[in-house]
Structures are given as structure tokens and as C-alpha cells.
Amino acid sequence: MVRISKQAGNGMTRRGLLQGAAVGGVGIAGASLLPAPTASAVGASNGFVFPGVDVVIDGSHATTDVTLLVREYLARKSEADPDGTMTFFSRNPVTYIDAVLGWSWYDWDSLRTALGQFMPNWPKEGKSYPTRILGNSTGAMVFFTDTAGLFGSSEIRAVGVINFSDRRITRQIDYWDGRHFGISDTAKLRVPTDKFPADFRESTVGETAAQTMKNVSYKLARALRNGDGAGAADLFAPGAVFEDVPAHVQIVGPRSIGSYLTGTASLLPYSGQGTAVRHIVGSATGGGYEWTAADGSASRGVIALELDSWGKITRLTAMWDGSQADDSMLVSLSQKAIER
Fold first, then answer.
1. In CATH, what class is 9-204?
2. pTM
3. Coil, strand, or helix at residue 102?
4. Domain 211-335 CATH class label
5. What's the CA gap between 289 and 41, in Å, rounded?
């Protein structure tokens, strides 16, 4: 079964809502009907909602503590409060990189200075809010949206790979689709190629992901590197969903997923011999890995994974910079999703 989707991975499905309600321990579905809380009430027992935004955070594959921590962090960011936002970051080590634009900060003071320059210019109603969180308090994949006006005329729907130590962020790398933001707007903001960071500082935080997440990530990455769609399909649960955000493709079921991965082995930027795992985060049920590619349309990106209790993939979301790919490649990726 194949569905061509809009910006996948940032909505709240009925399945995810019900799962989140079961995991969260509080009445999430009921909480979504409550008036939006003020930012000062963000830590209250009001379910996984977000102040000022009509959204229910999908925390079905995250621990409650990291969901609340991320919500508090982004609520403070949404208040355009540089000092408050920086209380969520470690003094040392700290790394923050935008993997699309190449903007980078490697110490607390420089990041604080940057926020102090950005935030006063944000629109009053601007928000940076989470929609889905995968992982635990050591590391998580955070799907979040920066509304229009924060960093340009369009919204940014990103996946942040975040490492934590003692409830402080030690490393955050943001991946998003430059086509959704606008190809020309993205190009204007991107640093020159010779200035783009080569080291994403994963060595400063180490590999703390759960062993199950590591095992699945490495097996999947190896199958994709070898163009082994059938081997990759074996890692998926019967009702699994595969979604590639820049390609606007969603596929359901291992057989169809395997067929698609076989047919696109030479097209997908995270498939082929030049690909490698950069860093893994998450728990035994939610997380994923950053990847790099020596060749192809995009040189870096992220694979977010939801796993069931047997370690099978129930949902895979791929995020990379589609502005680096030409139209014909994206058309080919869509055509390969047509089943026969």
C-alpha cells in the first residue's frame, strides 16, 4: 500500500494519540480539549499539549521525562527568552549545528550571543513547538516546527537530534527540508561550502543509545548501504510505515517497503556504498540515527525509528535536505512508489 503524503512525520495520527495517552499516564486526549495553557503553566499536569499551539505532542515512543523536558525547553524558546533558553544547555560540552545551513556554535557564550541577536526580531506570536518525540533523557529525535518569521519568511519543520546530560543539552543537530522552506531562501542563508562544518562533534557526547536501537540502526544502515531491500524489509513490523519527507512518499507494509528500497537503491541519498552511520540516539522503542553520504544528492540526514516490543520497525521517517536534489530525482522517487 502506497500513499503520497504532504510533509510527513509532523501530524498527530489517531493511532499515535491513543498510544500517547496510554504511555503518558495523563488524559492526553482530554487535555487536547482544554484551553491552551500559558507558558508559565507548561510544567503543569495538563497532558502533552503546548502553550499557545493547538497540537498534541506524540510522546508514544518517548519517556515522559524527556517529553516534558523538551516541551519546557521549546516553550522557553517560544517566549523569545535567550537567558531562559540557555538554562537548558550544558556549559561544557555544547554543540549546536544547523545541518542544512551550516550555522554552528561550539560554546555556550557564542550560542547565547546568537540567540540574543535572533530572538528580539521574532514576531510576537512566533512559536517553536514539538510535534513528535522519540527517545529518552540521554538522547532523542525531536520533530519540531519553527513558525514563519523566526528564521525566514516560511516555517521550518525539522528533526532535531538532541543529546542530554543531567537534563542539559550537550549536542543538538537540526535537519530539515530546504525545499519546504524555499530553495532560493535556503541558498541565501547557507554558509559557503568551504565554511560548512565537517565535524558534527558526536565524539563529544559518545554513543549512549539503547543497544536495541543501535542494533536495528546498524542492520538497517548496512542493508541500505548494500542495496538490500529484502534484508531491510525483514526489519519492519507487519503494519510498518515508511515515509520520506522530502520525497513526499509514504509506503505501508514490509513487502512494499522492501520493493521500494530495492528500486530506489541508486536514488535515495541514504542508500548505497558511500553511506555511513554518524551517530545514534534513543531508547529501545524510539530514536534513530544520523547518516552521511560520500556521493549522491544529499551528504547528510537523519532516519527516525519507532520500534515495537520485539525490536521491529513500526515507523521510519527519513529527513534530508531536498533542496540539494533536482526535480527529476524527486519525480523518480515518486514514480518508484507506484506498485505493479
1. alpha beta
2. 0.87
3. coil
4. alpha beta
5. 33
